[in-house]
Every structure is written in C-alpha cells, then in structure tokens.
Fold these 3 entries.
Entry 1:
Amino acid sequence: MQSKTSVVKNSPASSAFTILRVSVGIVYFWFGALKFFQGLSPAEQLAMQTIHKITFGLINDHVNIIMLASWECIVGLLLMIRKWIKPALVLLFLHMICTFTPFIFFPNQTFNVAPYGLSLIGQYIVKNIIIVAAGLVLWKIETQKSAIGDRTTRPSEYKDLIPAISVKGHSPKEYSAKQSSVNN
C-alpha cells in the first residue's frame, strides 16, 4: 500500500517544479555556454552593445561577454543541481532586468514599428517574460520551503506547497484517510 508521503512525492505538481527548475537551468547554461565561443550566440552582438552602454564603455567588450557567459552558466548550473537556488534566482532576476534594456537603448533594433511591432531581436527579448514568470514560481516555492523550515522539502510537506494536488480524483488527505481505513 502507498503511503501519503509517496503519493505526494510522486505527484505531477512536484515533478513539474523540478522540470521547471531544470529546464530554466538548461536554457541558462546553454545560452551562457554559447557566449564563450565568438559568433555562436545570436544574442552576442546585442549583449555586447547593451553591456557596453550599461558600463559606460569602462570594461572591454570581450571581458564583458565572458563575464555574462560565466554569469549565465553559473545561474544555469545552480538551478540544475539545486544548490543555492535563491541566490541563483536573484542573479536571474538581475540579468532579466538587463535583458530588457535594449528596448530603451536600441529601439531601432528591437522594434519594426514601435511600440507593438517587435523585430526578431525584440521578440527574442520579450520571450524572457516566460523566464521571469518561471523564476517567480521557483522563488515562491523556495520561500514556502524556507517557511516550513527545511531547505530540502520532505515529500510529505509538498501538501503545504501545493494544496490542490489530486491523486486518482482524491486529494492526498482523502487518499491517506482511505488508506488508513484499508490498513486497519
């Protein structure tokens, strides 16, 4: 017989959070790794122009792109291996703020017809809204896990994180009560 703990641990919602965290990590790591090799990243030129503008040209463009590549790879790696998730998410949010600055600095590159006709570069930037949303979901999960007091949430605690889990048409609480009556 399955216990409440194993039902909740194997729930689709708990797996979805893991998939979300790992997939954002993969995207970050992949996009960052491309920037280590000149000419591979389609965002390389825009990234260098943007960082040049943000840093007032005080740092060499090649150094900037290597720092950005390292930043993205670190965020991705931390998310994939589930270490220091909140600090990784802070870095992710800071990065995301910077990714939207080309709309201010380079509107001629980001819009075909401002403010609604995005260029391909503008579309590439706007898709980051999805990464921000994913980051917010992960932040909320990490905050709730911290409130519970355990950084490595035990499966039985997912019920506090995900109140609407259903298993075969029943909530974990109902399922557990039915299992108890079967075992007695």
Entry 2:
Amino acid sequence: MKSRERHRPKDGRGNEQARFALSFAAIAVGLLALYYFPRGNEDAVERWTASYLWLYTRVVGALIHVFDPLVTARGNVVAGRFSMQIVKSCDAMEANILFASAMFAVSARWWRKAIALTVGLAALVLCNLVRLFVLYWVGVYALSAFEFLHYDVWPLILIAFAAVDFVCCMRWARGKDWAPVVLGEAKPRVAG
C-alpha cells in the first residue's frame, strides 16, 4: 500500500491528467462515431458533410486554378491535368476531431479555449489545403508517388501537425499553467 502512495502526485495533477485522458477519449470516440456512423444520404450529418466536401472542393479547385487554368471543380471532383475526388477523410476530419477533442478536454478558460480551438482548426484546414494542392501536382508530375504520399506520408504529417498545433494552442489557452500538464513538474536539481 505504501508503494502506491509514494508514486501518487500530491498536488492533484494525477487527477487532472486522468480527467484529461478520459474526457479526450470520450469526446474523440463520440465525434468519430458521429462522423463515420453509416447513415442515409438524407441524414442531416450526411447533408452537412456533403456540403462541407463540396466547399473543400471549390477552395482546392480555386487554389490550383491559379497555377493551372484548366482546372475545374464540379461536385466533389477537381479535374484538370489530373483528377481527384474529395471524399470523407480527404478533409482531414480525423485530425480535426482529435485536435478538437483534445482542446475540449483541456482545463482552461472557455473563451481562451474557444479562440485556441478556432485558430487551431483553421491551421489544420490550411495544412490540409496544402496537402490537397501538393497531391494534385504530384498526380500531374509523379503519378507513381501519389498513392504513397496520399496514404502513407501525408496522414502522418497531418497528425504530427495536429499534435504540434494542439501543444501550441493548449499552451496559449492555459496561459501560465500549461507546463505541469504536459511536461510534469520539473524540479531544479543542485549539482555538487
């Protein structure tokens, strides 16, 4: 019994870390289930998702059109010298959901958390737009590398970006209290 007590933090950080982990897991599972749960095309979530993907297609098409005037965006397809269809998970929703879940689970003032969440999600959307822009050009000039970059490299980049994005946004949202939650308490040691 004494060995357990010895490893338990005395300042309540362990409870906060457990609360964060449980909150994050519950929120992420709920949001991912909402996004991926199979439903009919007339469902409100599916209609919202279709509109969101349509908008993503328009924005990506407009960005690519600046450099390739032949590009058009119809429905959820960007077509030009290479065609790509924007479907679920092309929108980096998994990274967005994980980031949002982590931000919702952080203990911080609600207004700071709301600002950090908005800025962080905007950064993730921008990163994903860069991903889709790059993938179009890879499809045009290095088609053999498209599948590898699309399925292996870019998902890792997006998740790594989301993790860094979270640490930055969480640090700002928590203000001065951020370090103990992420890094644990660092006690200075005296040499000698």
Entry 3:
Amino acid sequence: MCKKSCNFAANFNHFKEIMEKIDELDRKILKIITQSARIPFKDVAEQCGVSRAAVHQRVQKMFDNGVITGSSYHVQPRSLGYELCVYIGISMEKASMYNQVITALQKIPEVVEAQYTLGAFGLLIKVYAHDNEHLLQLLNTKIQEIPGVANTTTLTALAQPIYRQLPIEV
C-alpha cells in the first residue's frame, strides 16, 4: 500500500501545525545548516549563542517532526550514466487511483520525484534515464503499464540552471 506521504491533506495539516511551532532559534539553525549541511553543531551553537546540546535537541526535534527530512550527499546522475532527465505528466483514469499509481511508481528506481498536481496532469514525475532507448523502455513497459495511468506527456530537461533550497527567514 502507499506510504504515509500519499495522504496529502493530512500531511498539509501536519506541516501547518509544525510550522506554527518553529521559533526564531529553529529558523536560525535551519538557515545555517541548509547553507552547509556538514557544519559541526559546535559552530552552529556559537553562531546562535546557545549550547551544542540545545542545537542537537532542536535539530533532532525537527527531524522527528518531519521539518528536516535528511542529510545526504547529492550524486550527479550523469556520473552514473544517466544522460536524460525528464518530467512526465501523468493523467489518471480516475483520481481515486492515485494511491495505486504512486505505489507502482515507487517500485521504479528511475522515478526520483512525484508531485500530485492540479491542472493538465494528476501527477508530475521526475525520471532519469541512460538514453532515449532506456526512456522508451521505462515508458512503454513500466510507467504506461501501471493500472490507472490513462496517458503520459514527456518533457525533456536540457539544463538545470537553478537548484536551491528555499530561503529561511529569521
């Protein structure tokens, strides 16, 4: 079955409640660690004027509440042989098939993002492929074969001139 992330309304309300609880110190910490994820908590504490333990507790609380969802290294897909980045708009047969479609998409490793959208498509997914042949194989034998997928529209990304986190207002 679909993971917790499929329940859009519940997630929205959850994050709305959490954002109301984030104070100025949390925002300062977030601003610092989003600019440099490898910065030691000791340095964050110095910049914020609090103890290292306070920073650790705040960061852990934000992890527990889903404000921070990870701290990872970003690997360039091209270094792994993925030459194409595409966005695929998916129209579903019925909106009620959303959970089924998401569950099936989660099983395709080349699908790295999915957004539930309003407008021309019910879903917009981000997919990496080695080349055109690989993309065609993903579309024809995996994505378009998912029960509930009515049709797809593919957009090829030529470049990614902007990639950043949202600014943290303090």
